[in-house]
Amino acid sequence: MEDKLILALCLSALFVVVLSKLVSSAVKPRLNLPPGPWTLPLIGSLHHLAMTKSPQTHRSLRALSEKHGPIMQLWMGEVPAVVVSSPAVAEEVLKNQDLRFADRHLTATTEEIFFGGRDVIFGPYGERWRHLRKICMQELLTAARVRSFRGVREGEVARLVRELAASAAGAGAVGAAAGVNLNERISKLANDIVMVSSVGGRCSHRDEFLEALEVAKKQITWLSVADLFPSSKLARMVAVAPRKGLASRKRMELVIRRIIQERKDQLMDDSAAGAGEAAAGKDCFLDVLLRLQKEGGTPVPVTDEIIVDMISGASETSPTVLIWTLAELMRNPRIMAKAQAEVRQAVAGKTTITEDDIVGLSYLKMVIKETLRLHPPAPLLNPRKCRETSQVMGYDIPKGTSVFVNMWAICRDSRYWEDPEEYKPERFENNSVDYKGNNFEFLPFGSGRRICPGINLGVANLELPLASLLYHFDWKLPNGMAPKDLDMHETSGMVAAKLITLNICPITHIAPSSA
């Protein structure tokens, strides 16, 4: 009798649970989610990424989108995600419903690296973020401010040209055959430009900061176990990337504090001596931030976050795009010759190029656009996060869903680009398509409220170095390599850099000035 009573109670309890589930599902409207691949418990859709056999996430996602459509639902572990792979859907998310998707997808790793989401890149949408963005747009990255650093860019580029000319003159048979490591030279150039622009000079702690920044960038991946299972304390405990990211951030903060103090001391010394600000450091980013803080123009201290954003963004994007551009020109000798002819005709007779010399170089600008199309530095735009349940193209997007726009896939889609896999700068001739965020088939810098605030600075850091390298040098591949044999594979991660170092041989065509 007792056993029957227990069984009856258990069955009754089970009935109540099942009934409550049925009632709940009947009351709660069923969401019409975007299509997507089938999922497994715990890991969600991760096995589909592994099955595509591509180490690059953007390539794997394109393969899946070709099966499931331009708006696709995935589960990355326990994280709901939507992948966008068409201009129409991108416009809906980034323009028509920009405010609904104005938050950032902040992972455990990016949270540790970028000051808990207190910066401009990964900060959540809100009053603080709007304030930081305003500082960037109205104080730091105005067209006038970017122009004010032209002397820095011209000086650093001239230094690189002299170094390459010396290498070309001094290279023996072995050196000429091996070529010059342009990754190393161009990364150093970009870092020097951004350091002088940001903190007023080549600070003594530059290498220490850049080393910490490099370690941090390697940890930024949304496939860390802690990023895939954010509710799991165990995942957070065993994950390596967040711990390394936090250690790198602490190193960067320590260096920044030293840099700030050095700059304050220098400004005080200059003021006491009546010398004013040093010409090279006048109105650098750090000076502007210190002035705003002194005047009470900022409600919260923002120096660390903004300086890290400035240095990390500018020191990564420009060299990545410049290396890809030179690699594509080496693979396409006709385009290389055409670009060189334009520069050399415009600047004929000069031993040093200035930014005034390159204003009218239309083909050079087309070359840069084509590189940004074929090799967008961020193949997946920094992910947005849905702030409230929304509808996109008839599908429901629940609050908290992360949205990834696969710009790499859109820029290589034959529905929007003729011969999309071919490097053809001429496609932009007599074409109004640009990278300012209004052409949704071409968004290398994003769009809407979250568009990259440093577009003008990034492009300025590209045009002068490229024009100078094309003007002063002819270039050859090492060891008799044919153009078609140049390896063009990219790295995996948030930034798609060229996987194999670009080693090519400079042959001085027009010697630079000695100073």
Name the quaternary structure: single chain
The percent of residues in helical segments reads 40-55%
- Shape type: globular
Find the CATH topology: Cytochrome p450
Helix segment count? Answer: 20
Order of strands across the biggest sheet? 1-2-8-5-3
Subcellular location: Membrane
Keywords: Heme, Iron, Membrane, Metal-binding, Monooxygenase, NADP, Oxidoreductase, Signal, Transmembrane, Transmembrane helix
Organism: Oryza nivara (Indian wild rice)
Binding site for heme: 452
Description:
One of its GO terms (molecular function) is heme binding. By secondary structure, this protein is α+β, with helices and mostly antiparallel strands. It has a single domain, classed as Cytochrome p450 (Orthogonal Bundle), CATH 1.10.630. The chain has 20 helices and ten strands. It has a five-stranded mixed beta sheet with strand order 1-2-8-5-3. Helix 8 runs antiparallel to helix 10, helix 10 packs antiparallel against helix 16 and helix 11 packs antiparallel against helix 14. The radius of gyration is 26 Å and the shape is globular. The relative contact order is 0.15. The N terminus is likely disordered.
Question: What's the layout of helices and strands?
Answer:
Elements: H1 2-27, H2 46-51, H3 57-68, E1 71-76, E2 79-84, H4 87-96, E3 103-104, H5 108-113, H6 127-140, H7 143-148, H8 150-170, H9 173-178, E4 180-181, H10 182-199, H11 206-219, H12 225-228, H13 233-238, H14 241-273, H15 285-294, H16 303-331, H17 333-346, H18 362-374, E5 384-385, E6 390-392, E7 395-397, E8 402-405, H19 407-410, H20 455-472, E9 473-476, E10 503-508
Parallel strand pairs: 2-8
Antiparallel strand pairs: 1-2, 3-5, 4-10, 5-8, 6-7, 9-10
Helix pairs in contact: 8-10, 8-20, 10-16, 11-14, 16-18, 16-20, 17-20
